[in-house]
Amino acid sequence: AIRVIRTPLKEMPGIAAPLTRSFLRPSGAALNDRLEGLKTVITAIISAIRDPRRDQVNDPIPRTRSTLKREPERLQELEDQIEKEINNVLSSALEERPL
Questions:
Q1: 4 CB neighbour count, 10 Å cutoff
Q2: Which residues of 9-44 are buried (b: 16+ CB within 10 A; e: fewer)?
Q3: What is the pLDDT of residue 70?
């Protein structure tokens, strides 16, 4: 489901055939219910495609890097801090993992 939201056009061929088979199956839900379900899926895909968060212009990481391009020391400091925090979270998660 997450892949469909992140890359709907890429994932569509993989879900189109099963969705079509399910829709055309003579047994199962009433035709109106199937139409509503199909409408919901198509609406979700269109919404994902139009989501402004998918636009690289709105991605905070490249925007920050571009903004701090003239301050390489500050940029490096931030990236080092983020890497350290990510490593701490990963270490903590691995320590809590049941064996």
A1: 17
A2: eebeeeeeeeeeeeeeeeeeeeeeeeeeeeeeeeee
A3: 92
Mean pLDDT by 10 residues, the chain (99 residues): 68 79 82 86 80 74 87 93 92 76
Q: Is 5 exposed, middle or buried (0-12, 13-18, 19+ CB in 10 A)?
A: middle
DSSP for 30-61, please give it. Answer: -HHHHHHHHHHHHHHHHHHHH-GGGSGGG-HH
Instruction: Note whether 19 and 38 are within 8 A (CB).
Output: yes
* Helix, strand, or coil (residue 98): coil
